[in-house]
Amino acid sequence: LMSAVELVDFEVHTWEATAYAPLDPQAVEGVCYSGDPNITASGRGIRPGVTVAAGPSIPFGTWLWVEGLGWRCVEDRGGAIMDGYIDISMVSRQEALDFGRREVLVIIPVWGD
Question: Which class for 66: exposed (0-12), middle (13-18), buried (19 or more C-beta within 10 A)?
Fold first, then answer.
């Protein structure tokens, strides 16, 4: 039996965002990914357009709303990804390069029992 969960608050942040595309055939190990490009740090398969890497204070499985992109799920980490930064998975390396580095509004819902 599931209990009702309700939105009790939300956090609003301005974070620096970059993008990566580990599944692109042009992806370069050590630049676009480390280790197995198919598997995220959470152990889940990479999902371009869904997966983001976030700092260690954001638990795996947390859904974020990212300005201009919509809902994304924290499923990865990165050596240079600290709190206040996200790295967004994309389908192609060119799409990631076109995204560049920019500040984005990030909203994190806070759920209660």
Answer: middle
